[in-house]
């Protein structure tokens, strides 16, 4: 109790401002007393979790694996470290539905398709179509000039195909083939696309899953309204690049898992008691679609949190 009073006198707002990083057993006990005895915190389990430790939606932190990237782009399969749903720093279990699974090498996908603004488009040849254990869609090894790279394979892509990449927006829409990459403003309405850039020149951000595609609906000024696989409508700049066609491995979502052991091989842990009919958890209730989301400029990056450590007494 005395240690708690001393800690409150020294750091009255330690739970709101700082995240104490304990080092010794004394620090663990002191940190626990500060957390449980402080009046500004609730007593429920949900209220006793450090909010900055939990994954935020849309940040890409799935706690499934860490990919060890090289300094420069390479087609060599990269090593990975499986996290099994644990935080790589604290070791806490964050995602309970992740664990186990067959360890796969990671193939580095070239998300940027950059082409000339004027003149003839760049032509590349598909060398090989292969499976990738770290994603649902198949991937393609592509060669152009003196470079090799991986891209996501489309529905009918095969070895020997020639794909084109251009950044030019002509007055008349182009007639593109599967696998070609063009700006959204250069394509006719109704075209099926995938690998859509969120902002021009930032690389592909949307529509990566197997068998998925987005549809160009209409043009409003210099904006293109696109219907995503979720039926939501997004407004993109006409200069955002996209790849024509539907992604490969269409039967992925229709293929049954078959057994519990097969699900463990895919990297999922057993779960039970998660869904409740009365609350509609995990999207079981039908809700209206949100309005069109306009993407103008990237958001400013959040400042890094300040982490302070308490020295040993």
From TrEMBL:
This is 39S ribosomal protein L2, mitochondrial. Keywords: Ribonucleoprotein, Ribosomal protein. The keyword Ribosomal protein applies. It comes from the Eukaryota. It holds the Pfam family Ribosomal_L2_N. SUPFAM superfamilies: Nucleic acid-binding proteins, Translation proteins SH3-like domain. Belongs to the universal ribosomal protein uL2 family. PANTHER family: LARGE RIBOSOMAL SUBUNIT PROTEIN UL2M, RIBOSOMAL PROTEIN L2. Residues 85-165 form the Large ribosomal subunit protein uL2 RNA-binding domain. InterPro entries: NA-bd_OB-fold, Rib_uL2_dom2, Ribosomal_uL2, Ribosomal_uL2_C, Ribosomal_uL2_RNA-bd_dom, Translation_prot_SH3-like_sf. Residues 176-290 form the Large ribosomal subunit protein uL2 C-terminal domain. It comes from Periplaneta americana (American cockroach).
């Amino acid at each position: 109790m005395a240690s708690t009073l001393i800690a409150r006198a020294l750091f009255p707002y330690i739970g709101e401002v700082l995240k104490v990083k304990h080092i010794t057993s004394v620090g663990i006990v002191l940190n626990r007393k500060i957390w449980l005895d402080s009046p500004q915190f609730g007593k429920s389990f949900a209220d006793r979790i450090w909010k900055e430790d939990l994954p935020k939606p849309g940040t890409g932190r799935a706690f499934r694996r860490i990919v060890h990237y090289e300094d420069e782009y390479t087609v060599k399969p990269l090593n990975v470290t499986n996290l099994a749903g644990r935080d790589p720093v604290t070791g806490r279990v964050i995602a309970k539905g992740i664990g186990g699974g067959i360890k796969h090498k990671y193939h580095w996908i070239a998300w940027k398709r950059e082409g000339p603004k004027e003149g003839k488009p760049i032509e590349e040849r598909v060398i090989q179509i292969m499976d990738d254990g770290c994603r649902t869609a198949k991937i393609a090894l592509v060669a152009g000039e003196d470079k090799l790279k991986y891209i996501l394979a489309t529905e009918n892509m095969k070895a020997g195909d020639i794909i084109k990449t251009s950044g030019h927006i002509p007055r008349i829409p182009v007639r593109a083939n599967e696998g070609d990459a063009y700006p959204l403003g250069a394509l006719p309405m109704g075209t099926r696309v995938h690998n859509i850039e969120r902002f021009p020149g930032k690389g592909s951000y949307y529509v990566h899953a197997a068998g998925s595609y987005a549809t160009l609906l209409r043009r409003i000024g210099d904006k293109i309204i696109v219907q995503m696989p979720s039926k939501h409508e997004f407004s993109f700049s006409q200069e955002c690049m996209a790849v024509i066609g539907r992604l490969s491995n269409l039967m992925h979502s229709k293929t049954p898992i078959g057994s519990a052991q097969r699900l463990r091989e895919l990297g999922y842990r057993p779960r039970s008691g998660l869904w409740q009919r009365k609350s509609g958890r995990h999207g079981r209730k039908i809700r209206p679609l949100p309005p069109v989301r306009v993407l103008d400029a990237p958001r400013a990056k959040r400042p890094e949190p300040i982490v302070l450590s308490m020295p040993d007494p």
